[in-house]
Amino acid sequence: DTGVSQNPRHKITKRGQNVTFRCDPISEHNRLYWYRQTLGQGPEFLTYFQNEAQLEKSRLLSDRFSAERPKGSFSTLEIQRTEQGDSAMYLCASSTPLGTSGHNEQFFGPGTRLTVL
Amino acid sequence: AQKVTQAQTEISVVEKEDVTLDCVYETRDTTYYLFWYKQPPSGELVFLIRRNSFDEQNEISGRYSWNFQKSTSSFNFTITASQVVDSAVYFCALSEGTSGSRLTFGEGTQLTVNP
């Protein structure tokens, strides 16, 4: 198992363009999360999936953002009409199904660094 | 609403010194989980520890130890005999309830261990 992978690792785009990022979670993990991290700050929650169902979305996730996990495996995060304020590191994490332990730790991928010019 | 505060923005120590990173949290839930993550210069967040609100036992793992005190809503992290490889940003995080969803992170503490 190679852990959570994200592609691309870096993306530079011009303002107004659309971008899409991909996340492949650890294979047996049914929960998948997206976070955004700006320089000098902690990660901020965007949304999460349990299997293919999107169960929670942050207010940070404006209508320009959309996330999918169509088959309950990999996920994509799309940003439409990018703005300079969207420049950040986008992190994906996954976790195992909840069991008697309650809440399992999330394992993070290396992130996709987005720069909007 | 849940909140995590890491008051120490940056800490600089000399190798072999002990260092404690502070974390204070706010939550209205009686069931919650606390975490520490390490983010080295490479950028990938590395899970260190998880604690649930019903287990106040302190934990030691090698040079790392954690002190959880519900009375002061704190979950502090101590590195004993620090090493240069410990240099990283350390994040404390909180998750509420048993549903297992969002992590709320603090702003992180940049630890620099000098040789």
Kindly summarize this structure in a few lines:
The complex is a heterodimer of chains A (117) and B (115). Chain A is built from no helices and eleven strands.
Description of the molecule:
Chain A has 117 residues and is mostly beta strands. Chain A contains no helices and eleven strands. Chain A has strands spanning 5-7, 10-13, 19-24, 31-37, 44-50, 53-57, 65-68, 75-79, 88-95, 107-108, 112-116. In chain A, a hairpin with a 6-residue loop joins strand 7 (65-68) and strand 8. Chain A is globular, with a radius of gyration of 14 Å. By secondary structure, chain B is mostly beta strands. Helix content of chain B is 0%, strand content 53%. Chain B has strands spanning 3-5, 10-14, 19-21, 24-26, 32-39, 46-52, 59-61, 64-69, 74-79, 88-96, 104-105, 109-114. In chain B, strands 2, 5, 6, 10, 11 and 12 form a six-stranded mixed beta sheet that branches. Chain B is globular, with a radius of gyration of 14 Å. Chain B starts with a strand and ends with a strand. The chains are: A mainly beta (117), B mainly beta (115). Chains A and B meet through strand 4, strand 5, strand 9 and strand 10 of A and strand 5, strand 6, strand 10 and strand 11 of B.
Pick out its properties.
heterodimer; A: mainly beta; seven-stranded mixed beta sheet; four-stranded antiparallel beta sheet; 0% helix; B: mainly beta; six-stranded mixed beta sheet
Q: Segments of chain A where pLDDT lies below 50 for 5+ residues?
A: none
CA gyration radius of chain B, whole angstroms: 14 Å
Largest sheet of chain A: 7 strands, mixed
Task: Please give the count of helices of chain A.
Answer: 0
- What is the number of strand segments of chain A? 11
Strand content of chain B: over 45%
Sketch the topology of chain B as an H/E string, one letter per element: EEEEEEEEEEEE
Overall pLDDT level of chain A: 91
The biggest sheet of chain B, with number of strands, parallel, antiparallel or mixed sense and barrel status, is: 6 strands, mixed
Q: What's the helical proportion of residues of chain B? A: under 10%
Summarize model confidence as the mean pLDDT of chain B.
92
Structural class of chain A: mainly beta
Low-confidence stretches of chain B: none
- The rough form of chain B would be described as globular
Q: Total helix count of chain B?
A: 0
